[in-house]
Design a protein that fits this description.
CATH topology of the largest domain in chain B: MetI-like fold
Distance between the termini of chain C: 17 Å
Largest sheet of chain B: 2 strands, antiparallel
Strand order of the largest sheet of chain B: 1-4
CATH class of the largest domain in chain B: Mainly Alpha
Strand content of chain B: under 5%
Shape of chain C: globular
Strand order of the largest sheet of chain C: 6-7-8-3-9-10
Number of strands of chain C: 10
Structural class of chain C: alpha/beta
Number of domains of chain B: 3
Radius of gyration of chain C: 19 Å
CATH architecture of the largest domain in chain B: Orthogonal Bundle
Order of helices and strands of chain B: HEHHHHHHHHHHHEEHHEHEEHHHHHHHHH
Order of helices and strands of chain C: HEEEHEEHEHHHHEHEHEEHH
Number of helices of chain C: 11
Largest sheet of chain C: 6 strands, mixed
CATH topology of chain C: Rossmann fold
Shape of chain B: elongated
Oligomer: heterotrimer
Structural class of chain B: mainly alpha
CATH architecture of chain C: 3-Layer(aba) Sandwich
CATH class of chain C: Alpha Beta
Number of strands of chain B: 6
Helix content of chain C: 25-40%
Distance between the termini of chain B: 57 Å
CATH superfamily of the largest domain in chain B: MetI-like
Radius of gyration of chain B: 39 Å
Helix content of chain B: over 70%
Largest interface: A-B, 84 and 85 residues
Chain lengths: 381, 570, 278
């Protein structure tokens, strides 16, 4: 019995050899896993390194850098004295980003609110595939749509479309604002108004406000769009691309808020939309901010849609807010010029494109950092 | 704010919220509908016999008796048209020449006999009167000739001999010029004329006739140009008339007529029943005008041809509905005007499979490390930050990186290749795969880990035998969705793998050769194609194919996950 | 409150750190013994200086109110608490005289010798057959006939064979709660452990399944040494030969079940058994 136990006991303890071997094995295994995991790190370091390295020859030259950021004269392929003024290209990127987010953020956030607060969870689950569908469609398909379907419509029926949009979006908004505003003003201006005075006042203010979109529509109706590929086209399509990101992340942020917040507000007698605006949104604002930033990032980095639909013109539009003019963005410039520039490796033409990528990378890194900082702040709360 | 208003605002906000959803749904519908409808039109369409001829002769398709008979019937229907055209183009110029030459000689005789009158002219005092009399003289002299010319022109146009007559007239100009010069010299020597006297005489001899000749020539050339335009239109519609013609053409698009009935009808409308010809406008510049052919050729044999084409287009082309599955399996011919998109589909497949093969194992291993082994600390924090940063890099920067690092520095291939493109795409989708696989592993209940450990499984054994299998459905979902993303990306492959034209690659070529791919070729065919309106169906077809592939991958991922989860739970 | 412990003192002196041969051959009846064993979760002292042993072939129950450290102590016997990062132990636990906290101890082999059944049934999302065969396969048994035999024996011993013999390859998650727990027992038995640790195995089950498993424990006790943690005193009284009462991390009393329940030596034990607290 003793000997049997002795034998069995022996197998429980490993001898030095085995133990060391096992420990080593474990360590090697962990190291191997770590090495593989470090690959994306290597990749990002390499990417940063290469982009920076290839853009230094351009950025070295200070007067050229000044020209890059301030001049609108872009002629990199000239044999003698080429110019690298990229201001109009930066402006194009800015214009398109602002335009698309101006459409996508309100629309996306309101849709997210609807999905998380207003419709039943079952319906929200059914609607999820719609959002995922929009997210899954490749960007070149969006670019195709922008170029082949949307651009001709803009060119041939642009005025009609724009005026219809002004009416559809503007009239309800102005009517609502009119009603709300008239009520607030009513209590301040007239003392003890009777029913008729109240109604008249309301109607006058509302109609006055509604005149705005009607006037806008009238003016827009006669607008002739010279080219269907312009900043407006690109902005709308990019807005559609950014929507799924904004909607799904905002929705997550909104649904994460506990029931007690909602019940508390409603119990105090607020309407649903007051609850949403006064309680839920402020609570979810960091989550929604992250969603907006991610939408931004998606739009800034988009290449194919802008290459195909923004018109690729080097002028800053006149006046500066005219979206119906063609513009050019950083990504489209890189994509368009790289093919030829690669032939002349080492020239300023080649390196300026890396300088542009560097700007894009920096923007992406800053936005990413911002979204992570906001996200971690939220967790701290 | 009164309660009423608050309620109104509440209701209107709800309405706005619903509108937002409606707008999103409408967007999907508005986006997909034209693509689906027109994309299906690339495969299901009304084809003509030209389509079948093309397939038979270039792709070795075997066809039934019925089809061969259809081709024969179409050819039979075209014969009368071709005969009309042959007859029209034959032209007999000799008769015209004779008539007009007669006219010239009579005119010259007039001039000679009236030479005394001319001298009276020269002695006139006022220049104005001199000019007037010279013009009148000339008019009389050439009157018969011009009448003859007019008649001849009318006849020629009616009988289809414009070309022949135009040639004659061209020669006549020189003849008249020569004859006038000779007569002038003779007179000049006889009477010792001054320079101004000579020029006055010249005017008397030929005033009016050259302009008329030029005008008539112009008209006849117009006729001819118009006829040639119509002839080109018919060739565009039906293809070359004879085998000989066919063989002398190099481009595939010249060897066949229209393969799709919709395009054929466009050709009929824009290249046959209305045509473009160049004419001199008021300022004398050459501009191209569009004219109505039937009106232009009224009461000429060409009108009969046009009416024949219009009435018999169905008989000559024999349109019929067909499903062209070859769109997916055939190679493209002549810039995608004919054939299918197989090389693009194959290229997309290579790139996507390659990216997955490289990214999936790395992603899974990294996810296991993050979820099971990593102790939260500085290093792991940095690793996580890098993965997150990689996810935020714009796709065009990946493409640049692929070009400068993989191709120019590492030389994974000398030029663009599928390998370089697949590596670039793998880098692009790696962060997403890591993220979704990590969540999948974290979602495996801890009780499994404990049970496995309790039974004596070491950490790695436990992971491989219990945790990975249960995390597999979610991992697969994430991987397949990433594959869908890789299939649709364009920017990373522009510089690293994609080429606009090329044959389908064999497997061993993927390490060194670039490939056509759906995303890149869609861009190409929309922006840089020289005959964009002829290949619109191909554009839509490629977009529909790409969207279908991506959505099918997404759908497959969801179905796989649902199925496997059912199996795990049942 | 007095701490009365009853432990074989010869055991404590015999086992030294490096020496794994028990000097007293009479101690072969003790399979597992703990000596001055403490567990810390971070700063929290969860188990305080426990001295007790488990006799071969007997069922030892560990009872006490929730949070008293009984599960923690049990899980240290097969070093499951290694999976928790903040856990730290002092003192020693010996299996067959071998210190299981020896730095070169083969933990995998330890866990094969000391099996565990958990509070919530946790069969793998595999087939019933694969669940039971998991352990043997780890050991290297791959022959189909051998595995069939082992699976059948284990399922029989766990009183589950008749219910599942026709659907061995269907998914284990389709079984009822009681069946799943018996499957986990069969799974643990399949590797032929010396000791079977059971951490409140019936707390997630209905009464009928509970009584079946209690019968099972009685059957198994002839072949295996069983240590069962339970908060159900009646269960402890029914199935166990020895009982240990834990309170706030201390082992208050240990003794034969009959004696402890009828005539506890400590007032705290008495209070707990009569229901004054816990």
């Amino acid at each position: 019995m003793n000997q049997e136990m002795h034998k069995r006991a022996q197998t429980l303890i490993l001898d030095r050899h085995n133990s060391a071997a096992r420990a080593l094995f474990g360590l090697l295994g962990r190291a191997a896993l770590l090495a593989v995991t470090a690959l994306p790190t290597l990749a990002i370091i390499f990417i940063l390194f290469f982009i920076v390295r290839e853009s230094i020859p351009f950025l070295d030259n200070l007067p050229r850098v000044k020209e890059f950021f301030t001049s609108t004269h872009w002629a990199p392929s000239k044999e003698v004295d080429p110019s690298f003024g990229a201001l109009s290209i930066f402006y194009g990127t800015l214009m398109v980003t602002v335009g698309s987010c101006a459409v996508a953020v309100p629309l996306g956030v309101i849709a997210a609110i609807c999905l998380s607060e207003i419709v039943s969870p079952k319906f929200a689950g059914i609607f999820k595939p719609v959002v995922e569908l929009l997210a899954a469609i490749p960007s070149v398909a969006y670019g195709f749509f922008a170029l082949v379907v949307f651009a001709p419509i803009l060119q041939n029926h642009g005025g009609f479309l724009l005026s219809a949009l002004a009416l559809l979006a503007g009239l309800p908004a102005c009517a609502i604002i009119g009603i709300a505003f008239s009520d607030m003003a009513l209590s301040k201006m007239l003392r003890n108004p009777n029913k008729n005075q109240k109604a008249a006042f309301r109607v006058i203010i509302t109609v006055a406000l509604c005149a705005l979109p009607v006037a806008a529509a009238y003016k827009l109706f006669s607008v002739e769009i010279a080219s269907g590929t312009n900043a407006f086209n690109a902005s709308i399509i990019l807005a559609i691309m950014a929507l799924p990101t904004i909607v799904s992340i905002s929705q997550d942020a909104l649904t994460a808020i506990g029931r007690d917040m909602r019940e508390g507000s409603l119990a105090l007698g607020s309407t649903r939309s007051e609850m949403i605006f006064k309680v839920i949104l402020p609570c979810a604002k960091s989550g929604i901010a992250v969603a907006v930033i991610l939408g931004f990032m998606r739009v800034i980095g988009e290449t194919m849609v802008v290459w195909m639909a923004s018109g690729n013109s080097l002028k800053i539009p006149e006046p500066f807010y005219n979206f119906l003019e063609p513009v050019r963005t950083l990504t489209a410039t890189i994509a368009g010029e790289m093919g030829e520039a690669d032939q002349s490796t080492g020239s300023a033409r080649y390196h300026v494109l890396f300088a542009m990528s560097f700007c894009l990378l920096v923007a992406g890194l800053l936005l990413n950092g911002a979204s992570q900082w906001i996200g971690s702040n939220r967790k701290k709360k | 704010m009164s309660n009423q208003i608050r309620k109104v605002l509440d209701k209107s906000f709800s309405a706005a919220a619903y509108c937002a959803l409606v707008v999103m749904s409408l967007t999907v519908v508005v986006f997909l509908t034209p693509i689906i409808v027109n994309g299906i039109g690339a495969i299901v369409f009304k084809a003509t016999v030209e389509h079948e001829k093309f397939l038979m002769e270039n792709l070795d398709r075997e066809y039934s008796e019925k089809v061969l008979q259809r081709i024969a019937e179409a050819n039979a229907a075209r014969e009368p048209l071709y005969k009309m055209m042959r007859d029209y183009e034959r032209g007999d110029s000799a008769a015209y020449k004779k008539r007009l030459d007669n006219g010239i000689s009579r005119a010259l005789a007039h001039i000679e006999s009236g030479s005394d009158k001319i001298f009276a002219l020269l002695n006139e005092t006022s220049a104005e009167a001199r000019v007037r009399m010279a013009a009148e003289f000339s008019r009389l002299a050439w009157f018969e000739y011009l009448t003859e010319l007019d008649l001849a022109a009318k006849e020629a146009r009616a009988s289809g001999n414009s070309m022949a007559l135009a040639k004659v007239l061209q020669a006549q100009e020189d003849e008249i010029s020569e004859a006038a010069k000779a007569a002038l010299n003779e007179l000049g020597e006889k009477k010792k004329l001054t320079f101004s006297q000579k020029s006055m005489l010249r005017r008397a001899f030929t005033h009016g006739v050259f302009e008329e000749l030029k005008a008539k020539e112009g008209e006849l050339h117009d006729d001819d140009d118009a006829y040639i335009a119509v002839k080109h239109g018919i060739e565009e519609l039906l293809g070359p008339a004879t085998q000989g013609d066919k063989e002398k053409y190099k481009l595939m698009r010249q060897k066949y007529g229209q393969t799709r009935m919709s395009l054929a009808e466009d050709v009929l409308k824009n290249s046959i029943l209305t045509i473009s010809i160049t004419r001199a406008n008021a300022e004398g510049a050459e501009v191209s005008q569009r004219i109505d052919s039937l009106k232009f050729f009224k009461n000429t044999p060409v009108e009969k041809m046009l009416l024949y084409v219009e009435d018999n287009i169905d008989a000559m082309l024999r349109p019929h509905w067909t499903i062209y599955w070859g769109f997916f399996t055939d190679n493209p011919y002549d810039s995608s005007i004919f054939g299918g998109i197989w090389p693009m589909i194959l290229g997309t497949f290579y790139l996507t499979a390659g990216a997955m093969i490289m990214a999936a194992p790395l992603g899974i291993i990294a996810a296991i490390y993050f979820a099971e082994y990593a102790k939260e600390g500085k290093i792991v924090g940095i690793l996580r930050m890098c993965v997150g940063t990689l996810a935020g890099v714009p796709s065009i920067v990946f493409g640049l990186f692929g070009l400068t690092f993989l191709i120019n520095t590492l030389h994974v291939s000398d030029n663009k290749s599928v390998l370089a493109g697949a590596i670039t795409l793998a880098l692009l989708i790696l962060p997403t795969i890591i993220r979704s696989c990590e969540e999948a592993v974290k979602a495996v209940p801890n009780s499994y880990r404990e049970a496995a450990a309790g039974l004596g499984a070491g950490k790695w054994r436990g992971i491989c035998s219990v945790i990975l299998p249960s995390a597999l459905p979610s991992m697969l979902t994430g991987i397949i969705i990433s594959m869908g993303r890789a299939a649709g990306e364009t920017a990373p492959i522009i510089f690293t793998a994609a080429t606009s034209t090329g044959a389908a690659l064999a497997v061993w070529e993927i390490f060194s050769q670039p490939t056509p791919a759906l995303p890149w070729n869609i861009y190409n065919i929309c922006s840089e194609h020289e005959m964009a309106d002829k290949v619109q169906h191909v554009q839509y077809g490629m977009v529909l194919t790409l969207i279908t592939i991506v959505l099918a991958l997404n759908f497959a991922a969801i179905v796989i996950r649902a199925r496997m989860q059912k199996k795990l739970k049942s | 409150m007095e701490n009365q412990t009853l432990i074989m003192n010869r055991q404590t002196s015999a086992v030294k750190f490096k020496d794994h041969i028990p000097s007293d051959p009479n101690n072969i009846d003790t399979v597992v013994s703990a000596s001055d064993f403490s567990v810390y979760y971070g700063k929290f002292h969860a188990v305080k200086n426990v001295n007790m042993s488990f006799e071969r072939g007997k069922v030892t129950a560990i009872i006490g109110p929730s949070g008293c450290g009984k599960s923690t102590f049990l899980r240290c016997i097969n070093r499951m608490n290694d999976l928790v990062d903040s856990c730290r132990t002092t003192g020693l636990i010996a299996l067959d005289g071998v210190n299981i906290y020896h730095p070169r101890l083969d933990v995998v082999e330890l866990r094969r010798r000391v099996g565990m059944v958990f509070q919530r049934p946790n069969p793998f999302p595999k087939s019933i057959f694969d669940n039971v065969a998991y352990g043997p396969r780890l050991k290297g048994v791959h022959g189909r006939k051998e595995l069939d035999e082992i699976v059948e024996n284990s399922l029989r011993r766990a009183a589950l064979w008749d219910e599942v013999k026709d659907r061995l390859h269907s998914n284990a998650l389709g079984l009822s709660g009681g069946q799943q727990q018996r499957l986990c027992i069969a799974r643990a038995l399949a590797i032929k452990p010396e000791v079977l640790l059971m951490d409140e195995p019936c707390s997630a089950l209905d009464p009928k399944s509970t009584s079946r498993i209690e019968d099972l424990i009685a059957e198994l006790s002839s072949e295996y040494t069983i240590a069962i943690v339970t908060h159900n005193m009646q269960q402890a009284a029914r199935v166990s030969d020895f009982t240990a009462f834990f309170y706030e991390g201390n082992l208050i009393e240990f003794g034969e079940t009959k004696l402890l329940f009828t005539n506890p030596k400590c007032e705290a034990t008495n209070d707990y058994i009569t229901g004054r607290f816990g």
